[in-house]
Each structure stands twice: as structure tokens, then as C-alpha cells.
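JOB MANIFEST
job_type = single_chain_structure
chain_count = 1
residues = 122
[input]
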Amino acid sequence: MRSYRQLQGILCFCFFAFLFPRGLPAAEPLPERFLPLDGKIAEDGTRVEINWPKASRSKGGRVSIQRRIMGQTGKDSWRNIAAVRRVARVYLDNQVQSGVAYEYRISRPGKKWIETGYWTTG
């Protein structure tokens, strides 16, 4: 004989399966907003500093920093190089080669949108 808790669990599952026969609906992607970026390249070409404006008060996740070699295409060409706290406003990339042009993508999620900016070297 099944316990009350087991029957309750089965009933909850059946109710959920009835309401959502194909699972939960997919979450809507957040709209993107422009994130202005600025940067500096060290004279010897071995460091890149990228900065962006202060975040608004809205809460969100970490700032994602991605890089690819200039001229590469496709979303698989981006490499995650760092994730920093939302309050951060500067990233220093010490893992670059002199004479190689890079493209950076910085994304900062918020409650209502994702701010994204691009910056290139070279």
C-alpha cells in the first residue's frame, strides 16, 4: 500500500504533466542593448585594457568577456576569457600576442536586457 506522501507526489506529477505536456515553455531571450566600450593597447602590444561604463542599479549576473582573432566568424569562434563581477568596469588582458588583431565582446546581463559591446585591436 502506498503512503499518502507517495500518492501526493504522483498526483502532483500527473497535474504538472497535464498542464505542460511538452515540458516548461522556453524562456524568452532578453533583448540586447548597446554597451559602449573603450580600450588601450600597450605600446609593446602584449596587454589590452578594456573598460565600460558603470552598471545601473538593476541586478544581474557576472560580466562575460570573450575574445577572438579578428576576421574569424561564427558564434563558435568566441572564446570565454573571463567572467568578472557586475560592478567591475575594467578588464586587463595579458594573454595577447603582439601583432595579432583581436575582437572583444563584453556582455553584462540585467533584469530586463543584456548589454553587449564590441571592441577591436589592430
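[summary]
The longest helix spans residues 4-19.
Residues 12 and 18 are 10 Å apart (CA to CA).
exit_status = 0
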